[in-house]
Each structure stands twice: as structure tokens, then as C-alpha cells.
Amino acid sequence: VQLQASGGGLVQAGGSLRLSCAASGRTFSSLDMGWFRQAPGKEREFVARITRDGAITLYGDSVKGRFTISRDNAKNTVYLQMSTLRPEDTAVYYCAARTLGSSEFASWGQGTEVTVSS
């Protein structure tokens, strides 16, 4: 599966941003999807994930209550709505896909950069 993330940019603290990730090459509705991020000098961090049917979502502690993951299987796209952004949210955000039965996210997009200014 090929993943193309977009929507990153520069935003002030307290602002909002929506990331999108378009998938192709595989039946999108068969994939669990996730968002991860990596800040400069830090390890990659789990942000959120959503099941194939969108029924179950899970969030990292640092974004819980501020970020929302969703998906539109008709558009082969997963979204990450980010609100109340903080400077520590600054990172490159990656979307990833996990196939049915797999324990790992094996397919990754190229990343989109988010910068939150204070």
C-alpha cells in the first residue's frame, strides 16, 4: 500500500490543524491505520490508531483529548484532527497501515511536518 500524508504546516500554539493520509494500492477498508510522529532528536512516538471499520480508536497519552483520528473508507483517507496544539507537538507526522492479522504497522507514508510556534 502507498500512503501520502499532507496537511502539515506552521501554526500558533492553541491552534488547530488537520492532517490527511491518502492510501492506494490495497483495499483501504482492510487496513488498520495509525499516526505516529517524530520530533528532532527524539524517538518515534505513537499518536493514534483506528480500526478498519473506524469503530475503535486509541490515542497516545500526550494527545488524548486534543487529537481525533477518523477515516473515510469511501475516499481511502485517514485524518488526524489536531486541536489545542502545543509547541511540543512539533514533529514530522507519519501515517502507517497495518494489515489484518499483523501486529506491526508495515507500510509508512513520507511524513508531513507540523511546527507549532509559542
Please describe the structure with a list of short key phrases separated by commas or semicolons.
single chain; 118 residues; mainly beta; 4-stranded antiparallel beta sheet; 11 strands
Please characterize this protein's 3D structure:
With 118 residues, this protein is an all-beta fold. Helices cover 0% and strands 53% of the residues. It has no helices and 11 strands. The protein has strands spanning 2-6, 9-12, 17-24, 31-38, 45-50, 57-59, 67-72, 77-82, 91-99, 107-108, 112-117. The strands form 2 sheets. Strands 2, 4, 5, 6, 9, 10 and 11 form a 7-stranded mixed β-sheet that branches. The protein has a 4-stranded antiparallel β-sheet with strand order 1-3-8-7, with no helix packed on it. Strand 7 and strand 8 form a beta hairpin. The termini are far apart. The relative contact order is 0.32. The model has no long low-confidence stretch (mean pLDDT 96).
